[in-house]
Amino acid sequence: KNYKITLLPGDGIGPEIMKVAVAVLQAIAPKYDITFAFETALVGGAAIDATGHPLPDATLQLCQNSDAVLLAAVGGEKWDTMPSNLRPEQALLGLRGGMGLFANLRPAQILPQLIDASTLKREVVEGVDILVVRELTGGIYFGKPKGIVADENGVRRGFNTMVYTEPEIDRIARVGFEAAQKRRGSVCSVDKSNVLEVSQLWRERVTSIASDYADVKLSHMYVDNAAMQIIRNPKQFDVILTSNLFGDILSDAAAMLTGSIGMLPSASLGEAGKPGLFEPVHGSAPDIAGKDLANPLAQVLSAAMMLRYAFNEGEAANAIEAAVNKVLDAGKRTGDIMADGCERLGCIAMGEALLAA
Amino acid sequence: KNYKITLLPGDGIGPEIMKVAVAVLQAIAPKYDITFAFETALVGGAAIDATGHPLPDATLQLCQNSDAVLLAAVGGEKWDTMPSNLRPEQALLGLRGGMGLFANLRPAQILPQLIDASTLKREVVEGVDILVVRELTGGIYFGKPKGIVADENGVRRGFNTMVYTEPEIDRIARVGFEAAQKRRGSVCSVDKSNVLEVSQLWRERVTSIASDYADVKLSHMYVDNAAMQIIRNPKQFDVILTSNLFGDILSDAAAMLTGSIGMLPSASLGEAGKPGLFEPVHGSAPDIAGKDLANPLAQVLSAAMMLRYAFNEGEAANAIEAAVNKVLDAGKRTGDIMADGCERLGCIAMGEALLAA
Ligand SMILES: CC(C)[C@H](C(=O)O)[C@@H](O)C(=O)O
Ligand SMILES: CC(C)[C@H](C(=O)O)[C@@H](O)C(=O)O
Predict the structure, then answer these.
(1) Which atom of ligand 1 is nearest to the CA of A96?
(2) Of A209, A221, A143, the residue nearest A176 (C-alpha)
(3) Where is substrate annotated to bind (chains A, B) (predicted)?
């Protein structure tokens, strides 16, 4: 089996951590009788510098024609003064829209080795294992009309539209319920249906789709309460199913429970048979870029997620995750997850430790 | 000085905690040479039961014609099956819109006596003192167009509009900057300007208004990052200035840092000279209603906020806050904030302890 993978290293620490992930994939390949054909493309600030656009057509086409995309991170101060439609982050929206990546899976799992990195008390976060299923190509991120317009007196108003159709809700709901079937069997759908019509339709459709998944327990929660409950008692959650904007906010809050977002991978998936995109939750960390200080583990775990979700190579994915665990058990840490009594490694040395493991 | 106050006890524990707040106000009045004229009106589920509508015209008019409004809480399972435009919560939106309450001030302050109630580590939350300034009559809560419509094939779409005009942004920004001047002098404006046009206008106007407040330090943060930072390092925040929906979510997250939302008051203010509305952050807690178990302290602290913000009676407000502190120092607690070695009181006994203090 040969898999065609587009690599998008992007900006900041992106290239360093991507190098580690590729080395790990290459090391694992022969053991599972698979081969990878890697192609690297420009994205984000690096693409702006080279072509003037954060997501060149050539990049999007390459992604659409590959079996999966592995992205590192985009953005940095250097491009913060660009007009907003030409910022590095626009590449993410362009990839999501252009590849039809409507389902974003963001796990927030407390690793026992890193539990002290959390700002929450041990007893509150121990065992937390949340999967946020975020709708990624609809809602207020893509809704129209939108813009900034002036009235007859020159007074401006800015506006965006939060919108969902029934089919958009139905398909992400199915992703949520199916994920729950493979986990602990419960879905908490988060909306703001006490105020928003779009949320009323959301709640109605999610409730209706639930009848196809009798083995899954469905509950509903308002988004403000969900933000509280993630802090008050995060163990109550299995799958959180929610819209694009709410998922953006809540997945970051859930990720921060772990205290180590340098460890968290994510998957963005489209229709069956279409390529998915895999990337760490953290950003491009321009302040530490090129200094061999970055934590490559979220990138490596994103590669494992790719093996599992895109290629159904669950054993190869397990092997990578086991290597990460082994390295952590041995007390090896990058600076961001450093703790008393552990050994501090740079990005390159962490990669070597993974290969050895 | 005589102040005309409309009392809106509402549902659940509302009437019990309101009784305590009124008793405290009456006890304090002669000491500061003030008198109160209280009138009680129907709101929420109680109003639905009596009149069929959660916010009867008579209630809104009474509120508009008083010097301030003290609200307890609305809602309960009993009314959850009502059509959404007739639910108890609609009364809140009706009061905010009808009274022009565009500025919502939600303090989240860690009380030293209750620090162990937080799910976060002591060193993370010790000294946290955040004021969320939330815009309350604009944004996606009130934006039009909105609705649920079907296309020619009967496929429905739900939509809402997130919209701000320049004057709406300017006036809430001023509230934020002025609050910061009386606090620690810094404002963090939260938006999603990397994706939303409405946020781009928000950021532009807030930045422009900041030039009138040279003594205040302004920073900007994306809402997803803000949700993370509230968990990662809440001490970095003084005033968080944000829109209606983001403020709904972030103020609840910030409140939960304290671990004791039964303690948190809030103020909703309109144009100068118009009556404000004061209410606890917590809900109507129907499960414990009528059992003398409720914590009246947030309601009492809301009354103190009313004295300070609506009537400029800072000393009387201080006296109430001092009494609350004294009672907590003496180890008196309601069930929700109970801790080892403390004395558990019911709602009525807590009220008596306050009067004694
Ligand atoms: C960079 C930004 C456009 C993006 C988003 O809001 O979706 C990011 O925050 C994320 O969550 O992937
Ligand atoms: C009940 C609801 C309409 C309300 C809101 O969303 O504003 C509440 O959550 C609040 O924050 O006061």
Answers:
(1) 7
(2) A209
(3) 96, 106, 134, 224
* CATH superfamily placement of domain B129-257: Isopropylmalate Dehydrogenase (3.40.718.10)
The annotation status of A70 as a binding-site residue, yes or no, is no
How much is the pTM? 0.97
Question: What residue type is assigned to position A82 of the chain?
Answer: M
Which protein residue has the closest C-alpha to ligand 2 atom 1? B89
Residue among A3, A11, A19, A141 flagged as catalytic: A141
Q: Is A248 annotated as a binding residue?
A: yes
Average pLDDT over residues A168-174: 98
CB contact set of A50 (below 8 Å; sequence gap of 6+):
A42
* Distant-in-sequence contacts of A46-52, Cβ < 8 A, 24+ apart: A46/A9, A46/A10, A46/A11, A47/A91, A48/A79, A48/A82, A48/A86, A48/A88, A52/A86
Give the residue-averaged pLDDT of A331-348: 96
Considering only CB atoms, A159 lies closest to which of B147, B163, B232, namely: B163
Say what the pLDDT of residue B332 is: 97
Ligand 2 site-directed mutation target among B8, B79, B89, most atoms within 8 Å of CB: B89
* A203 appears as a binding residue in the annotation: no
Nearest C-alpha neighbor of B106 from the set B300, B253, B324, B207: B253
pLDDT in the model for residue A285: 95
Mutate to test the pocket of ligand 1, among B191, B192, B193, B195 (most ligand atoms within 8 A of CB): B195
Domain A1-104+263-357: give its CATH superfamily: Isopropylmalate Dehydrogenase (3.40.718.10)
The answer regarding whether domain B1-109+260-357 maps to CATH 3.40.718.10 reads yes
Q: What is the pLDDT of residue B139?
A: 98
Residues of chain B with pLDDT > 70: what percent?
100
Give the start-to-end residue ranges of the domains of chain B. 1-109+260-357, 129-257
| Residue A65 pLDDT class (50, 70, 90 cuts) | very high
Say what the pLDDT of residue B84 is.
83
Based on the residue annotation, tell me whether A248 is a catalytic residue of this protein. Answer: yes
